[in-house]
Amino acid sequence: GFIRRGSGPRQIQLLDWQKSRFLRVPVVGWISAGQALAIPQDSITCYLTISQNLLSKIGGNFIAIEVDGDSMNQKELAGKTIESGDFVVVDTEVKEFRNGDVIAANIEGGLTVKEFRRQDQETIALLPRSDNQLHKPIYLTKKDEFLIFGKVVDV
User: Fold this and answer.
1) Which residue in 24, 94, 124, 138 could disulfide with 151, CB within 3.0 to 4.6 Å?
2) Of 20, 32, 95, 114, which is the active-site residue?
3) Residues 113-147: pLDDT tens digits?
4) Residue 38 in contact with residue 14, Cβ under 8 Å?
5) 43 an active-site residue?
């Protein structure tokens, strides 16, 4: 916690937030686990308090986004599946992606979370991992307007 009892009666000490083993991760809106949908992402809506032990690296630039949809409900990440209503933690400093990474992407103004897969030198696939067969892969080339803005590192 952030309070330590002192040695005498009625003595407490407030611990410094910056020295804690927790991170305050800003929640910046929601992301579709389905079709890429345009949504406003202009402001921080709240903060999640997350133990540093849950993240693979200390530091970095993390944001949290609430998931809406079921296109990733069969993908395990850190021992959990990604369900509608979950918050995903995105490391926005990661710029190199490997096959199987879960990523957050902006495709022509719409945001989505999917599994990354390089098809060849020119094409990547963003794959749903869902029990809902209505979800289909999204195939992108360098000519398409998109930005992968981070790797999902926890749910």
Assistant:
1) 94
2) 114
3) 999 999 999 999 999 999 999 999 999 998 999 98
4) no
5) no
Q: pLDDT by residue (tens digit) across 16-48?
A: 545 567 778 878 876 666 665 555 455 778 888
Point out the catalytic residue in the list 19, 32, 51, 71: 71
pLDDT in tens, 104-118: 998 888 889 999 999
Concerning whether 71 is annotated as a catalytic residue, the answer is yes
Say how many C-beta atoms besides its own lie within 10 A of residue 143's C-beta.
6
Rounded to two decimals, the pTM is 0.78
